[in-house]
Design goal:
two-stranded antiparallel sheet, about 110 residues, Nucleoside Triphosphate Pyrophosphohydrolase, globular, 6 strands
Amino acid sequence: MNETPQEAAIREVKEETGLDVELYAGNKNATERGSGRLRQLIPPMFMNIHDVNSEHRHLPFVYFATAKTDEVIQPDNDEKGECRWLTREEIISADYIEDTIKSYALKALELLGK
C-alpha cells in the first residue's frame, strides 16, 4: 500500500538479484515529480494477466531497467534463483526461456541499446 509499482519493481530486483537498477521511462515526463498528492508514475513497458491456479491470478507489470553494476549478487533468501547475464544470441537460442519472456528481453535490448 505504501509503494508505487515502480518502487516495488526496484525493490524486487534488489531482493532477488542484489542489483541496483534505474527503470527505463519511455515517456521522459513520467519521471517528473508531481505536486501535492499527485505523483507521476513510470508506465510499464508491458502488462499481462495469468492464472497461477483456480484461486490466484497474477497481473505483472513489466518494466525495463539498466543496472548500475554488472555484478549479479545471489542473495541468500527465500526468493533466491539463478540469475545471469545473457547475450542476444543466448536469449534467442535458449529453449528454457518462454517465448513471451524472450520477446520482452529482446525488446529491452533493442530499446536500451545493448
